[in-house]
Amino acid sequence: MYTNEFHTRLKTASTQTGNSQFGSITVWCMRSLLAIALIFFTVLSVLHAQTVELGDIRGAVVDKKLEKPLVSYPVILTTHKTDTVETQETTTDENGNYRFGELPLDPKVHYTVSTTHDGTDYIEKDLVLSTWVPNIEINFNVGAFTDDTAQILVTSHTFIIGPPPADHPPDGAVTVAEAVRLENLSHLAFRTEHGSQKVGVHLTLPNGVEGFQPHLTAALTMNPGTNQAVLRTPLPPGESQLGYNYIFHVERDKLDLSRRLNFNTMRFYFFVPEGIGFVPRAKFFGAPRREQIHGIVYLIYESNENKTFAAGKNVDLALNVNMGAARGGLPGQTSNLGQLILIAVAAALTGGFFVAALFKLRAASNTTASDTDDDTPIPPDAGWLRKLNPDDREHVRVARLEFITHLDDKYEKQEISERVYKRLRREQTERLTTLLEEQKRGNNA
To answer: Which SS3 state, helix, strand or coil, does residue 411 take?
Structure first.
């Protein structure tokens, strides 16, 4: 009835007043529908904001030694903002579960969750909540460790020889960077005794180390009393990488990096710039691979793949110095040595031995911008990329792509946080773009 009456009135009004009246009625109806739609979508937006723009971090704390959850156990959340750091604490429930809720989904904010058990800190850093990942689960398995050294395997131990710091006197000093890739074969975290302390791992260093600097983690330190590089936190199951560098001196015509092994080791590598005359003394190193980038040659020495080095044994890692070959190229006396070692680090990175060296390569590559003749802004890497031949640029392109693929794989397996992943991937993509532009410029030349 109502519908027919409305239709009759609308038809009568249209007949009496013409199309203009009908048009005004149509506009009025459209405006009413638009207003209703705006209200509808506003309500939806508010509901969406209430359900999506806040997230949580939750998990459980389990004593693996007793195989039971820890009840009323403290867990701390640290919120890192641009200018502030805030902390809050909660405790686990009767099932060992905890939850931090109503956390903002802000990519500029990252979180750290931690707890302590039996004097050991358990920490998960660089957690970022987003609309894609509004909820993160972090479980802490505490209390149970393995101390079986047979469960720890060093799959590769890489040495990169470089120049000393610029302010260091030219007294035969070099910088030695070491990259150690370890694999914990157990399903439990590894912890061992070091003096009166319980630590993750400790690695013997050669005598005479100066200026020890760890890479990426502050949990790695040097104990001068025992001459050991010490990881204070337990070594988790699976694969881990440790990196550090230090200053060392050539003495009696050799650079002696020999040491006693704490764990079974599969392979050693030396990256030595050609022209400084360092040659491994031990016979288990074969002939080096010679790689040339930008007209500069570096040598890669690799230990015999059929030889495994047993824990508890001393291994000969001395490098003899041919003074005749090295006289013009001792560290601190050759302007090209810094660039040589950057190339060696890049080669190590390409081979997957020394991911941490990326940061050193990135920082040092910016110094090459002054080599260009024009005043136009140079993107990162462009200075030294312009000096490479086409074949070498192709090698760099492949290395960049492989590293980006490696990052994607690590992020997919949740082995790195979203914040770190996005930052590294953006940097590598920018550098790859710079390389492709240089390749295109070279093709058009």
So the answer is: helix
Distance CA 304, CA 287 (A): 10
Return the amino acid letter for 77: L
HEC profile of 289-316: EEEEECCEEEEEEEECCCCCECCCCEEC
For residue 135, CA distances in Å to 80, 101, 107, 332, 397 come to: 17, 9, 14, 52, 36
Is residue 37 helix, strand or coil?
helix
> Looking at residue 102, which CATH number applies to its domain?
2.60.40.1120
| Unique residue bearing structure tokens 């209430």 | 50
The residue from 143, 175, 208 where one domain ends is 143
Task: Choose the final residue of a domain: 105, 127, 143.
Answer: 143
- Whether the model clears a pTM of 0.70, i.e. scores above it, the answer is no
Element (H, E) at 19: helix 19-52
Do 197 and 251 lie in a common domain? yes
Q: Please tell me whether residue 42 adopts helix, strand or coil conformation.
A: helix
Closest CA to 272 of 326, 204, 215: 326
238 strand-pairing partners: 184
- Residue partners of 252: CB distance under 8 A and separation at least 6: none
Structural domain that includes position 27: 2-51
HEC readout, 429-443:
HHHHHHHHHHHHHHH
- Establish how many alpha carbons lie within 13 A of residue 119's alpha carbon, considering only the half-sphere containing its beta carbon: 7
Least confident interval from 245-249, 256-260, 318-322, 349-353: 349-353
H-helix segments, 128-251 = none
pLDDT at res. 437:
77
Taking the C-alpha atoms of residue 115 and residue 197, their distance in angstroms, rounded to an integer, is: 19
